[in-house]
Amino acid sequence: MIKSIKGNGIGNRDSLIINAAGTVTITGNVGGGGLLDLTVNAKRIVVNPGILISTRMIGGNRSVDRRFDGIREPLVLKRP
Fold first, then answer.
1. What is d(CA 74, CA 27) in angstroms, rounded to the nearest whole number?
2. Is residue 61 part of a domain?
């Protein structure tokens, strides 16, 4: 279960790859703070209603919100 993911807001852009044999459930917003590349590899991927997943360029420690419009970067969700 993923409650939140964001970059650390400093230095280079952040990337994250999640590999799971079972289910990955995303229950909170994902993105911001320099998180620009996100890959989720899982047998099942569940995103709860109303959750925002963004790999847009959001500087510093800013959180993801629906009002921000920025540069889209790679987002990959895969299941076999």
1. 21
2. yes
Q: Residue for token digits 């790859």? A: 17
pLDDT digits (tens, 9 = 90+) for 46-79: 888 888 887 766 555 555 554 444 444 455 666 6
Sign, CA dihedral 33-54-65-49, equals negative
Whether 8 maps to a domain, the answer reads: no
Domain count for the chain, please give it.
Answer: 1
Which residues are within 8 A (CB) of 53 and not within 5 positions of it... i.e. 6 or more apart?
Answer: 26, 29, 30, 31, 38, 47, 64, 75
CA distances (Å), origin 13, targets 8, 23, 44, 52, 74? 9, 27, 27, 19, 12
Identify the domain containing residue 58 by its residue range: 14-78
Q: What amino acid is encoded at 13 in this protein?
A: R
Asked if the structure places residue 2 within a domain, the reply is no
Q: Which residue has the tokens 């993911």?
A: 5
- The pTM for the full model equals 0.72
